[in-house]
Amino acid sequence: MVDTEDREDEERKKIELRKFIEDVEKKEFPHSYLIAVLHKAQELYNYLRKDVIHDVASSMNIPVSTVWGVATFYHYFNLEPRGKYVIFVCLGTACYVKGADRIVNTLKQELKIDIGQTTEDMLFTLLETRCLGACGISPVMMINNKIHSQLTSRKVSEIINIYRKDQ
Question: Is the pTM of this model over 0.70?
Fold first, then answer.
């Protein structure tokens, strides 16, 4: 049953991406939409899989090396799967002065991963960033576009447990 659902979901994603590319191909200068196509692929698959990159290249008649070049140049694109919850810890000056290093250490201990890694259960990915523009309420972290502010190690543990319970 699960295999059938997985295959159906995979087929649905392929069809949706192909339709998106077909729509792009009707526009003037379709190759200029490569970034938009890669965004769509990442939205569908959570990251840019090798086979998807090759399919995009083939469908758009663009060299695979060009597609790989774009996918690896822009930091927004993920070449590895990310967790359901992506955590960005701000390490900008204001956050760092107010203890961002302790926040990172707490997250590493809680999640049992390092910066740039994803938990085995694919629930959390831990990343760092230089500024989230929330200096007045530092230190901060962002989980899937939601800012959590004035963090302490205890507050971080409570927040992570809330996300775990939402499963």
Answer: yes
